Amino acid sequence: GDHQETVPVEGVAGGGTAYGWSDTGVNDPRPLRGAIDPMKVSSLELLNVWCMPNSANVGPQDMPRELEPISLLAARNERESIQIAIRPKVSWGGSGIAGTVQVQCTDLCSPCGARLVVGQSLTLRRVVPVLGVPDALVPLDMPVCQLNLFPGETTVIWISVDVPSEQTPGHYEGEIIISATKSEAESTSQSLTKVEKHQLYRELRDCLDVVEPLKGRPSEEVVERVKSATSSLRRVLLSPSFADFFSDYGPIDMMEEDAVSSLSIRLKISLTVWDFVLPVTPSVPAVIGISDTVIEDRFGVEHGTNEWFELLDQHFKWLLQYRISPYFCRWGNGMRVLTYTSPWPADHPKSDEYFSDPRLAAYAVPNGPIVPCGDTAKDYLRREVEILRTKNHWKKAYFYLWDEPLNIEQYNGIRSMASEIHAYAPDARILTTYYCGPSDAPLASNNFEAFLKVPEFLRPHTQIYCTSEWVIGNREDLAKDIIAEIQTENGEEWWTYVCLGPGDPHPNWHLGMRGTQHRAVMWRVWKEGGTGFLYWGANCYEKATVPSAEIKFRRGLPPGDGVLFYPGQVFSSSQQPVASLRLERLLSGLQDIEYLKLYASRFGRDESLNLLEKTGMYQGPERYTSEHTPIDIMRGEVYRTCRS
Amino acid sequence: GDHQETVPVEGVAGGGTAYGWSDTGVNDPRPLRGAIDPMKVSSLELLNVWCMPNSANVGPQDMPRELEPISLLAARNERESIQIAIRPKVSWGGSGIAGTVQVQCTDLCSPCGARLVVGQSLTLRRVVPVLGVPDALVPLDMPVCQLNLFPGETTVIWISVDVPSEQTPGHYEGEIIISATKSEAESTSQSLTKVEKHQLYRELRDCLDVVEPLKGRPSEEVVERVKSATSSLRRVLLSPSFADFFSDYGPIDMMEEDAVSSLSIRLKISLTVWDFVLPVTPSVPAVIGISDTVIEDRFGVEHGTNEWFELLDQHFKWLLQYRISPYFCRWGNGMRVLTYTSPWPADHPKSDEYFSDPRLAAYAVPNGPIVPCGDTAKDYLRREVEILRTKNHWKKAYFYLWDEPLNIEQYNGIRSMASEIHAYAPDARILTTYYCGPSDAPLASNNFEAFLKVPEFLRPHTQIYCTSEWVIGNREDLAKDIIAEIQTENGEEWWTYVCLGPGDPHPNWHLGMRGTQHRAVMWRVWKEGGTGFLYWGANCYEKATVPSAEIKFRRGLPPGDGVLFYPGQVFSSSQQPVASLRLERLLSGLQDIEYLKLYASRFGRDESLNLLEKTGMYQGPERYTSEHTPIDIMRGEVYRTCRS
């Protein structure tokens, strides 16, 4: 006994405290020893790879889960996304990194030969933390990219499938192939540095100088010179720079460079595309503000210049992909706002192009010139309205004049502006955001009652009554009271908005909230019965005068509030904006509304609410799922019951 | 009025919510536009750089502060450290990173020509987060290194100065030079890839083939062949691969490659070395355990093989730099431990080398063979003791037999093992760790009284009573009660230990605790009057069988508990262990004890405690500084009053 005990084993028995018990990592019986060559070991020995739904916030500290096959459902004209998390089990990459992986993506193909093409319908982005929270989606090269992994850190890839409206319904399959590979530093050690290259250049030039002026020289000298050049050339070819090629005079085997092999991890993606086509024009307009001032400052463009028009155009087009209706905005005195969806005058062809785009559900018409043009505001406004009211797209137009009026003077300001507009077009829609009545002339004895009476007070100077969700709190029944005050029969609408409130646990788009909490903003709209949504804004960073300047959130606002995308320059040399996870979830929420609307069109609105309830997806602003499964169940149920 | 208001300015007036107000970033009047060339812009426009004391935990989310000059004080044979934080103001690096910086370090020089040499006395390490908390110190290349910065992330460099014992006291100055530079990817775009290189190689070989067998050929053919080769060579030289060099036939200006210039940020380091030499042998032995089992598993070496001895040797030597006395340990049944500072038998020259190293303050003697050797445990123990007790270093020896006995059987086990040892050497020191008396035979009516009576109960079978700080809680006065039970006049000692307890806010080495909390572990030892300290252990990671396997902390333990360093392989291709911040703070704490001891030797122990109190550095386990300043004040006061 004594003898044995002198060489005891740490573990179950002793102070090892569970030593080896949670050993979920490397289970392979063949241990990896010494320097690890990723080209000779199964990537599964080097990497944990697992999938997560798009509503999960997966950060650097997330721990591995089981790898399960990916099975997605998407309608046509829908985007569906999934996340793949990668965490190194070991390090093989040398300095500073755990290792490099190559990620490759195939087209998704159906048995009948239809395809969803990588780089077009299938895109990969890297999830980058902002303030430590996964949020920015930085595009990756397609169809192959390399990623550096860091020790003890989980790296996350966001995969999106955009199904075109005309895509053949059916079952599609493809693969994501993940391969541990040599780091770039290692591969470039095989290349020539600038210094080596310059050395080589000089030697070759010297060779040339020796043999070049041969014409007319005595043949003895020619022979000598050629000999000298030949031996220089031979020396160059035998130099260490070309050592890789000595052994083999034949073609180099470049296969080694190809990381994809039987050692790779192959992740099957299976996608069912069903016949439902999401309407091109979103059923619920979501109007989202873009600060033109922020664009001007950050990109250093002057208001009204060609560059300025180009940048606004880029922002408009990019945001339109997200089923939202952008408006540009600059702030005036008080909370007066100058809002406009097109920076061009109404008679400019670009305005017509913008407004008649079927993806645009609503557009803001400015109540004065955006770029000074010599006209008075009055004249400008009259002409704009006169042009627009003759168009088919006029039904999408709205005027957003003032943000959150607080007193009689401000309410009167809206009345007077609205009167002017209605004088030119009685059917013009004025949108007013508010969360209370005028404080200096209470409309009722308590705040909520006063808030309820705003439509009565503002009528007919507002058609879209846009209220803060913060007012409702967790008392969803109040939505009914609000709607009761809206004369929908006269074309009035009730819209809602979120901003710095409501806070957790209510749905909003703040950084650090749960993924389902982001997505639930739109579930709430559906349940409460609002017919539109407003958000200010998508790019409200702290002031900066360099496109690639670090993003800072504005002081006094919850992180992420007012920011739905980032300038691409911050994350790469790309000019394209970088979406936030929250913008993707806004899109998902808008898509969920189309599913629910389809279901309601078959079985009635009440049944659609019942579906939200019975799946556990959304029951109220404090009772909604934190898991993804209920979302898939809802979507699956709509698919099962509504497919043709 | 109307006209003006149509082009309002976002900001103070309106919904911009403090837009531009916290603009502490880019203040430069010349805005950076378009692609940023780091070689043409002052690095200060691209980077925030600031310094932080070594007791600060500076993570990726830390925000910039004012850059202040670095002024350090260090004794001889002391290590003093400072942190430099770098955060990009903008991105210039292209894909995935904000940009690359080059960090360069000069020697520290005194006016009389003495030097602290970069790479030897001056080292740079990168602070790498573990579980999101800054902890691992990964060595950087010296004297120049490149670092990638990430958007919105603070990168931290840990600079240590190790002052040799024989260093000339005086004032030293040097510089850290930080330069934004082109990313490696960009610079390598100027180099030849393997494919281009191979192409070039083939073309040159073809040239050679054409001209090589010229001997004996008709001169016409020679001329033709040389012509052909010459034109091939000319084509090669004009190829895009060498395009960089076309413009200039003279020597290339390689200065561009040198990132250090007037654009760099130069950070002055000023260091006062004073004449005090920290004793080579630490005044308070800190014995720190290393799991041999973990080494065996992770590095795949078999117990007792040459590789095994080499690895243990490497660990011993590396840890000895930290003023600590390592012991190796493996666990037996119950909480029996086999502890040994030298893996070799006592008569092996390496054991003598280990034990007589003046930096080693205490060593563990095993009570049986570590590697089976044919001897019985009894015989082996007797021979070890007989050899060691004749040596000068025998006074450093201790026997650590059992960890935290809990019942009479375990206490009896210690008694019987100790009796055997004392039979061979009556002056042998047995160390016993405990936090309570035997549960099945209470020594008193309450737990703390029973704990107090352990020395009386164990005597004479233990000389070093090593108790958990957890027992004391915040009642520092209990330390006096413990000491009252120790017969110091008979050579008995009171040591302490921390492990999973005590928890926050008490001093310990858990990840996520404040830096001063880590350092205060040793302040506490000094204040309470313990004469030694024990910690298990330095490398108690979860089981892994690959050197570079991800570090996992053991289940059920607070993160960082039992882990003071990491295998270098996890972070780079280096074999050298990577220190944790917590290990550096253990060292700093041990150095603080030497300062306090020096002060006590001049003014008495009470005055040293008074100094701790009046600086606000440490007053008790729940009352110690969270700021660094009191530490500098204490050190400055010792310097002021004790320098010669």
UniProtKB/TrEMBL annotation, chains A, B:
Annotated ranges, domain Glycoside hydrolase 123 catalytic: 378-598
Pfam families assigned = GH123_cat
Q: List every stretch annotated Disordered.
A: 1-27
Q: State the superkingdom.
A: Eukaryota
The protein in question is named Glycoside hydrolase 123 catalytic domain-containing protein
Biological source species:
Capsicum annuum
